[in-house]
TrEMBL record, chain B:
Residues 380-634 form the EAL domain. It comes from Devosia epidermidihirudinis. InterPro entries: Biofilm_reg_signaling (IPR052155), EAL_dom (IPR001633), EAL_sf (IPR035919), GAF-like_dom_sf (IPR029016), GGDEF_dom (IPR000160), Nucleotide_cyclase (IPR029787), Rev_trsase/Diguanyl_cyclase (IPR043128). This is Diguanylate cyclase. CDD domains: EAL, GGDEF. The lineage of its organism: Bacteria, Pseudomonadati, Pseudomonadota, Alphaproteobacteria, Hyphomicrobiales. Residues 238-371 form the GGDEF domain. It holds the Pfam family GGDEF.
Length: 375, 637
């Protein structure tokens, strides 16, 4: 299996040609990553390409690609079965499903995959990214490159896998209930199918962007009247959703506001349901750096044999966190390398992250996801 | 611990470890049972009858099938054992999936395409959507497998089942080889050694799963299990008492002496309580500083009170830890079976309520649960529910009470106080909701709501009372100790564009965390121009040096000293001392709770305190009312 991540400014053809020539018949999984990738040698930076090859003669691996046109959930379901067929394991429950997709349909994709595997199998991955949110993201599978697609990889390894999925944000105090979202509709009929979506119209019956602006002490004041992209400003001040409790302590799934739209509507990178309480969250640079190491260490601890048995890892680090961390990003690569004790890894920077939160497969933003492979 | 993030991480880690230990313990038990069955069967008996009995409930499977190569090396498989009689005659060719399993892979299937045709063809009551789990198994010198099937309406097997299957597959293959093929002495010895190891590991795991690692006492889940077991065997007239013990101010011990001393104290407490127990009593630590003591059996209530009182008194004796003499006490609540509950959860909850009552009235004592307490608990739960809803509906409003120059009655500022106006329009004073709101974690949000309203109405207030007025906002000690929260409050105040018009009222308790306050919060407040007032002064613990360092703008003398001051010489002496302190530090003094003319006259005639606050001057009003009534009395000169 090959995992490949590259800067969106690259042309695809030389990369696919190289892979086809050097690794004929090997399943490929990956795509574009914001400002390149990272590995055990450090942060690749602009223009970089990062590649991880997994060799496991006793394991089975497969990938499949699908264009996300129409019902994304059904597309995902088909791609999963195709990936299992390609791995030579039709009808088997994989050990891990790894996905890379165009941003926008993550919840539907997870819903489709969960129709097949429920929460019996971890679904981990990221949403492909470009360098400036201009839509130049691509997804790379064994069949080539797509701009609005999904690549599903299935892993049935012989050495076992460990995984972890966490955010690095804390509640800042304020919270409110989502009272209106722009509904998802069912086809041309416009029937309201669910009171959830990525455009929050009101929180506590007030324009969502205004409420968010108040919670964050005027962070997006400049965009309230004009609207616009707020991805960079909001990286340290996202929203949080209660994902469940352990011993009465709440765990949060993070949602990243990306735009202020007309009428004070707040657009986000993940779906929010009406009636959900949204929490104002805050981040801290140092913690976002350390967290990458901690998430990796947690994944490593879960593989059979623990750290002594780690062969390598696949890391997904949110591009929003990357923006927030800025010049300290080398620290992120160092922290991951340290947790892996120098074992090889490849890391991508994404516009959405998928992983397991309190035993449930979920999509979130500004999260860090790690998969560690055992020998 | 640095913050909630670390706490969350620790909890997830602990949960994973506990889950994994429980799973391993359950696995070890199962493996022992199944192996035992395999090892004791006679040569000609079917070894799987017992194995199926042990495996099916644990895997929640409905059927089990053993397929073995018809001949060594053959790709034809025959069913040699099955819990489903119709499958016993089955013969099939090894397809790709079965070949993988024969090669040693554990395979579990997706639920929508689980069963292969060769299996479906053998029986009408098997369905394609039955989840299946395939485990490789060596049976004598031939390869084979065990296939476990679930009902079609059940979920498929998950990763935990695969892990269990992996262990069973390995050990069962060894056991089969040894028991069925005239094992040698060495093989027999090896197998016995393996079984012994498993037994030891199971017992060690069971202890770790059921006991608190620090004190060695039973943990929350195990206490519940033990008590439930006892309760299930109780006959009419038999009783049991459950005492809930919570250490008083344990957090302070951790804060002052550090976690090592805190941990040693918990161990000391556990030892002392244990020293009083009878053989049949149960003691557990169910969370940080909470212990559950189960007294079983007892006939007369006096027996409980003697023992519980002895525990209470023992806890009050100082603990010698690392050369320190650490003082401690425990508040105790007791509930009795069957009068106060017939199951563990009810008894624990009621004992907890009784303990809570002890805490709020007389820490370090014992309270027995009563019906009235049960009613209070119901009311409290209802209050919490209404508070949560009220919070979501932003029902918390701001009222202002004037602070005046006692000589001229000129208003010099206002204190912001909270009121909860519920959905029926009933106005609740802070005493009825602040404490529960704090416990529910709503206080920060409520403070934010009050500030929002105040800031929103500031232009109107400025117009009515002038721009020089200062508005005080109360901040609890817990809030003041969190620089993050204080930063958000200061930012909120700054967003009004008139930070200089605001003052934060902190209690003396806030100053205990003076170092954090001074290094992080104070400079932020000073830079923003926000004033600092020390509220309820005289009732707390603040030291003179801390007060000097904090450089507060205002000291508000607690109402307990002002009430009937003209009749209380002792309060008068204290007041004089506070007055000298204020003068020495150059801080304005405000007399709180002035309610009578006598109190006012005493203050004016005997002290130099000029500022006062209380019902004598002004009762708190909603801002709109205050503005509307401004011509009627409370107004700036």
């Amino acid at each position: 299996m090959l995992c490949v991540f590259y800067d969106s400014d690259h042309h695809d053809a030389p990369i696919t040609d190289f892979l086809a020539e050097r690794f004929p018949g090997v399943p490929v999984l990956g795509g574009t990553s914001c400002d390149g990738g990272m590995n055990q040698l450090g942060l690749g930076g602009r223009g970089s390409i990062a590649l991880l090859a997994i060799t496991d003669p006793e394991g089975d691996y497969g990938t499949a690609s699908v264009l996300l046109d129409g019902d994304a959930a059904t597309c995902a379901e088909k791609a999963l079965h195709a990936a299992l067929d390609n791995a030579g394991c039709p009808g088997e429950l994989p050990e891990l499903i790894w996905i890379y997709q165009a941003p926008g349909h993550e919840e539907e994709v997870i819903a489709g995959l969960r129709r097949v595997v429920g929460d019996r199998c971890p679904i981990i991955g990221g949403s492909s990214a470009d360098n400036d949110v201009s839509g130049k993201w691509r997804q790379l599978g064994s069949d080539g490159v797509m701009t609005d697609g999904l690549v599903v990889g299935v892993f049935l390894s012989s050495g076992g896998v460990g995984f972890a999925f966490q955010g690095g944000y804390e509640p800042a105090g304020a919270s409110g209930v989502v009272t209106k979202v722009a509904y998802a509709t069912n086809g041309a009929t416009g029937v309201v199918t669910q009171a959830r979506g990525r455009r929050i119209i009101t929180i506590d019956h007030k324009p969502a962007a205004e409420v968010y602006n108040r919670w964050t002490d005027g962070l997006v004041s400049g965009k309230l009247s004009t609207g616009g992209n707020i991805l960079a400003e909001t990286s340290m001040h996202p929203l949080g959703i209660d994902a469940g409790k352990i011993e009465d302590v709440t765990h949060y799934l993070v949602v990243h506001p990306d735009q202020v739209l007309e009428g004070g509507v707040l657009s986000t990178f993940a779906e929010v349901e009406e009636g959900t309480r949204l929490f104002s969250m805050r981040g801290d640079k140092a913690r976002l750096v350390e967290r990458a190491g901690k998430v990796t260490a947690a994944a490593v601890a879960n593989i059979p044999g623990g750290a002594a048995n780690v062969a390598g890892a696949l890391i997904v680090y949110c591009a929003g966190c990357k923006m927030a961390v800025g010049e300290q990003m080398e620290g992120v690569a160092d922290a991951v390398t340290k947790s892996l004790r120098g074992a090889p890894f490849v890391g991508c920077f994404t516009f959405g992250e998928q992983g397991v939160v309190l035993n449930k497969n979920a999509h979130g933003n500004l999260m860090i996801s790690a998969v560690a492979f055992g020998r | 611990m640095e913050g909630n993030e670390e706490l969350r991480e620790t909890l997830v880690g602990m949960r994973q470890e506990l889950d994994s230990l429980r799973t391993e313990a359950a696995h070890a038990t199962l493996l022992l049972q199944a192996l035992d069955t395999l090892l004791v069967v006679k040569e000609n008996d079917d070894p799987f009858t017992g194995v199926f009995g042990a495996l099916l409930p644990v895997f929640e499977a409905s059927h089990a099938i053993v397929l073995v190569q018809a001949e060594e090396g053959s790709d034809e498989l025959e069913c040699t054992a099955s819990s489903h009689p119709a499958l016993l005659s089955l013969r099939c060719k090894a397809d790709a999936l079965l070949t993988k399993v024969l090669g040693g892979r554990i395979v579990t299937t997706l639920t929508d395409s689980a069963l292969p045709d060769w299996l479906l063809d053998t029986s009408d009551d098997l369905s394609k959507s039955q989840p299946a789990l395939y485990l490789p198994l060596g049976v004598r010198d031939r390869r084979g497998m065990l296939v476990l099937l679930r009902r079609p309406d059940q979920d498929g097997f998950d990763r935990a089942h695969v892990a269990l299957a992996r262990k069973f597959s390995l050990l069962a293959s060894h056991a089969m080889a040894a028991s069925r093929a005239h094992q040698t002495e060495a093989e027999s010895h090896r197998l016995k050694h393996l079984t012994d190891q498993l037994t030891q590991s199971q017992s060690a795991l069971a202890h770790r799963v059921n006991h608190d690692q620090l004190t060695g006492l039973a943990n929350r889940a195990y206490v519940q299990e033990l008590v439930d077991k006892r309760l299930s065997t109780k006959k009419d007239g038999e009783r049991l008492a459950l005492a809930f013990i919570d250490l008083d101010d344990f957090k302070r011990v951790n804060d002052f002496y550090g976690h090592a001393v805190g941990d040693a104290l918990l161990c000391g407490v556990a030892e002392r309580i244990q020293s009083q127990l009878r053989m049949t009593d149960i003691l557990g630590r169910i969370s940080g500083d909470e212990f559950v003591l189960v007294l079983d059996p007892f006939v007369e209530r006096r027996e409980i009170s003697v023992l519980v009182n002895r525990v209470r008194d023992l806890l009050k004796k100082p603990f010698a830890i690392e050369g320190l003499s650490v003082k401690c006490s425990g508040s105790v609540g007791v509930a009795i079976f069957p009068t106060h509950g017939r199951d563990y959860e009810t008894l624990r909850r009621n004992a907890d309520a009784a303990m809570y009552s002890t805490k709020s009235t007389a820490k370090g004592n014992v309270t027995y649960f009563s019906k009235a307490m049960g009613q209070q608990m119901d009311e409290r739960m209802s209050l919490e529910e209404r508070l949560r809803n009220g919070f979501a509906e932003r029902q918390f409003r701001c009222v202002l009470q004037a602070k005046v120059d006692m000589g001229t009655r000129r208003v010099v500022g206002f204190e912001t106080l909270a009121r909860w106006v519920d959905s029926e329009g009933v106005v609740h004073p802070p005493a009825t909701f602040l404490q529960p709101a704090g416990e529910l974690g709503l206080l920060d949000g409520i403070t934010g709501m009050l500030l929002d309203e105040l800031i929103q109405k500031l232009p109107t207030l400025n117009k009515t009372f002038g721009r020089d007025m200062r508005y005080s906002v109360n901040v609890s000690a817990a809030q003041a100790s969190r620089p993050g929260f204080m930063r958000s409050i200061v930012r909120q105040v700054q967003s009004s564009g008139s930070a200089g018009n605001f003052m934060l009222e902190l209690t003396e308790e806030s100053l205990i965390t003076a170092s954090v306050f001074q290094t992080q919060t104070l400079p932020m407040m000073r830079e923003a121009g926000v004033g600092i007032s020390i509220d309820d002064f005289g009732t707390g613990y603040s030291s003179l040096s801390t007060l000097a360092d904090i450089t507060a703008d205002e000291l508000k003398i607690d109402r307990s000293f002002i009430s009937s001051i003209h009749l209380r010489p002792r309060s008068q002496s204290i007041l004089r001392a506070i007055e000298s302190l204020g003068a020495a530090l150059g801080i304005y003094l405000v007399a709180e709770g002035v309610e009578t003319e006598e109190e006012l006259h005493f203050l004016q005639d005997n002290t130099a305190i000029t500022l006062g606050q209380g019902y004598l001057f002004h009762r708190p009003e909603f801002i709109d009312d205050l503005v509307a009534n401004s011509g009627l009395g409370v107004h700036a000169a």
